[in-house]
Amino acid sequence: MSAGRGAPFRRPVRIGVIATMLTGVLLLLCCTGGTAAFFLSGLGGDAEDGDILAGWGCGPVRPVDIVGELPRFAEYGDAQVRNAAIIIKVGQDLGVPSRGWVIALATAMQESALRNLANRVEPESLTLPNEGVGADHDSLGLFQQRPGWGSVAERMTPSYAARKFYEKLVKVRSWQRRPLTVVAQQVQVSAYPDAYAKHEELASKIVNALAGGAARTVEINGKTVCDAAERGEIAASGWTAPIPGDVGSGFRTASRPSHHGVDIGAAKGTEIRAAASGRVLVAQCDPDNRNRRDCDVDGYPDKGGCGWYVDLLHAGGYITRYCHMVVQPRVKVHQVVSAGDVIGQVGSSGNSSGPHLHFEVHERNNRKSSGAIDPVPFMRERGAPLRAAE
Asked: Does residue 235 contact residue 204 with C-beta atoms inside 8 Å?
């Protein structure tokens, strides 16, 4: 990233401790090294790997064929993927936006591993088609619904169970913008409310594979748009671009191999948004090369440090970093933020020669340079591409 020698790389985080500038200006940025219904696709013919299908383009496609062959995923068998297709198809039929499909899949993945489970406490369920026997109180089916959700036969019917989930989901206030685990918990009232989030990434991949890239879409003015999540619009995957703007200096280029992020040009004061829901790990002034903490003034090349910056921890062990803010961040350590929440403003503090956002993505809970990955393909795959990044 663009923080120089003073970049705040530390030990990997443990989960449990929980506008656009002119091109000429972009080239001058100096940051050296360091810190609604959606359409569904019919997938007939030979089964293909889900990860390959997830890379398909996004656009209007046919309804999913829940009877024909479906893509394969290493994590699930054919019956489980078919249950996923049923869940998505019900969401389409009800007119639920595709963010709801991702939430529903992640919930069923946690509750039943996408299996239609019977229960010995409900003997009738053992006589009905099932994919295993659970043992959670008197819960049944894909979503482990208890008697208040319906009869035994109804709860053991995947389409019924999915419909009941969606009916309650859409009543949750601001459900499309809130963290997946919060929304799922509002519907399920689970004893393990934080467990849903870990399934969000795979749920998004399955939605993309079964529904033609639908997890990369966002609704804008009543229309479904692909790869357009920015300015606070959230893709069905749960991600958004942190600011609108063009990428100038890229990730670990030949001329800057220790640049562990990308620089996005923007005017000073432009609002910076959380790229996804998560928890604040760091919100502070990063010391420069001389161990000074003077982030309230513009920096300069070779000063070192990230200036005012924020690190966020997201589901799946991803960490995003936002550097060179103009003033102290708007968030505090341990605060939980939703995707699109404003966390700070663009500035030029620290190791910088002009206003911009230095943006990083790290994986495996690793805040060190060894955990950094290229944000450009990462954000593009989530429907929140960084502009002019090709």
From this structure: no
User: Could you give the CA distance from residue 247 to residue 262 in angstroms, rounded to a whole number?
Assistant: 7
- Rg of the Cα trace of the chain? 22
Q: Are 217 and 60 in contact (CB under 8 A)?
A: no
Query: What's the pLDDT at 283?
Result: 98
Query: Cβ–Cβ contacts within 10 Å for residue 376, how many?
Result: 18
Q: What is the DSSP string of 161-228?
A: HHHHHHHHHTTSTTTTTS-HHHHHHHHH--S-TTSGGGGHHHHHHHHHHHTTSGGGEEEETTEEEES-
pLDDT band at 188 (very low <50, low <70, confident <90, very high): very high
Phi-psi region of 174 (alpha: psi -120 to 50; beta: other; left: phi over 0): left
Tokens representing 72? 């394969």
Q: Are 105 and 199 in contact (CB under 8 A)?
A: yes
Strands 342-345 and 336-337, bridge-based pairing:
unpaired
pTM, to two decimals: 0.84
Task: Indicate the helix (H) or strand (E) that contains 250.
Answer: none
Q: To 10 degrees, the CA torsion angle through 118, 124, 127, 128?
A: -60
Neighbours of 23 (CB within 10 A): 12
Neighbours of 42 (CB within 10 A): 16
